[in-house]
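Hi F.,

I've been meaning to write this up properly since the lab meeting, where we talked about keeping a consistent format for the predictions we share between groups. The idea is simple: the sequence comes first, exactly as it goes in, then the structure tokens exactly as they come out, then a line or two of notes. No screenshots and no reformatting. I'm using this chain as the first example so we have something concrete to point to.
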Amino acid sequence: MKRIWIALAILLAILAGTLAHSFYLAGFTRNLTVLLEQAEVHAEQEDWETAAKLTQDAYDRWQKKDLYLHITLRHDETDAIHIGLQEVAEFIQCKEGGEYSAANARLIANLELMVEEEQLSLKNVL
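Output, unedited:
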């Protein structure tokens, strides 16, 4: 009987850790998305300097969590986000509005899909 309680405690700890990770990742990516959307607004107004600062802030925040993200997520997902952040920064520097908007929208979609994949849902369990 003692083994059952220990096994149950371990399962509950794993579930709690999974839920905590999911909520943390959702909040973290929400903050990045807000920064990228604000950068988009400034880029549309041709305020490239502010757009570059906001994008750099998003990139810096991503880099600060790089180890955690590489441990908890698939590497191809984290690599795609990293590349996307560099891509939008380059389009801002070149002041390529159309390409920047498309790359930024793709980056935001990748962030949203990454969070969706980490959610505890029937679709992800099956």
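Notes:
Helices lie at 2-44, 48-64, 66-72, 75-94, 97-118, 122-125.
The two ends are 30 Å apart (CA to CA).

If this format works for you, I'll send the rest the same way.

G.
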